[in-house]
Amino acid sequence: MKLKTFAKTAGAVLMGGVVATAMASTAQAEFPEKPIKIMVGFSAGGGTDTTARGFASYVHEAEVMNGMPAVIINKPGGSGMVAAKIVKDGEPDGYTLYMINSGSFAAAVMSAKGEAPVDPRKDFTNLGCISQLVTALTVHSSSPFKSAAEWVKHYKDSGETVRWSTSGPATMHALLGHLFLDTIGIKHQVIPFQGGSKARGALVAQKVDASFNGVHLTAGFENEIRVLGVPTAKRDPVNPDVPTFGEQGLPALKIAGPMCLWGPNGMPAETVAKLEAAVKHVSGVKGFGTFMSKSKLAAFHMTSEEGTAATNALFDTLQPVIDKIIN
């Protein structure tokens, strides 16, 4: 009798364990069960915000997302660090994510000189990238220079000091401006602004000689701004008429800022896999590509491994520039 009772009890415990395991497995497999939040550390209207909203417009179509949408939350401050810290400190359940380009992420961390509240190399998981920010050397349309090569030759021969605007003292665009000008040996004075649109405004008003700024910010200003070149390895897909520095016999640099989706470390492996699949899906949606091209931003896919490698490379390349310009 006791043996029968024990057997029934053991069977019930075993069955309960199986049911509990199955329920837990089912619950995990159902991610996402609610909308995901994507934090953007900059104001609405910029390249990061545009990319995030484009992604959010199509992510629910990915089969792995169970029809769930994404909601964009803008939390400007600290060069994106305020939003990044919110994501890092949140639950690693995949429902609160972060979007930023790797160049801006690296620049913000390095410029804090060890005081940054987060570090993508230690605190975040890259979920893949869907676009990129491309820095461009731009001048006013009234400038006599038609190429970066002509521009460089003039300033090297004349010895004049170039006054140039950019989106902040230590943004990716600013660091690439310093790197390019120092590499070719041109005297220069940087005029940093709070944001790319203000840096663009200074160029349009001809208060500066040139600008190192996002190429996408020339959209709608084609009559006022001329793009002389970009520091990427290949021409930007949505700006195919703009030659690279390397094509013009100048230091190529071969740098762009992949626009990636990030989550906090510690997310379940299955959740990570689903989010990676969603990123890949959206990058290939025709409507997403059309949306991005209207803002002069490319749409493509970079895996999480490629995005991580690109981020690490940006840290290595830009660290010496940070060390030079920030004491």
Number of strands: 10
Note the overall shape.
Answer: globular
Domain module tally: 2
Main pleated sheet: 5 strands, mixed
Number of helices: 11
The CATH superfamily name of the largest domain is Bordetella uptake gene, domain 1
The helicity comes to 40-55%
Parts with pLDDT < 50 across at least 5 consecutive residues? 9-15, 18-28
CATH topology of the largest domain: D-Maltodextrin-Binding Protein, domain 2
Report the portion of residues in β strands. 15-25%
By CATH reckoning, the class of the largest domain would read: Alpha Beta
Order of helices and strands: HEHEHEHHEEHEHEHEEEHHH
Q: How would you sum up this structure, described in words?
A:
- The protein has helices at residues 2-29, 47-58, 81-89, 102-111, 120-123, 148-158, 172-184, 196-204, 269-283, 286-293, 304-325, and strands at 36-40, 70-74, 96-101, 124-133, 135-140, 162-166, 188-192, 210-214, 225-229, 257-264.
- Helices cover 43% and strands 18% of the residues.
- The N and C termini lie far apart (82 Å).
- α7 (172-184) links the parallel β6 (162-166) and β7.
- With 327 residues, it is α/β, with parallel strands linked by helices.
Summarize the structure.
The protein has about 325 residues and is of the alpha/beta class.
Main features:
single chain; 327 residues; D-Maltodextrin-Binding Protein, domain 2; 5-stranded mixed sheet; globular
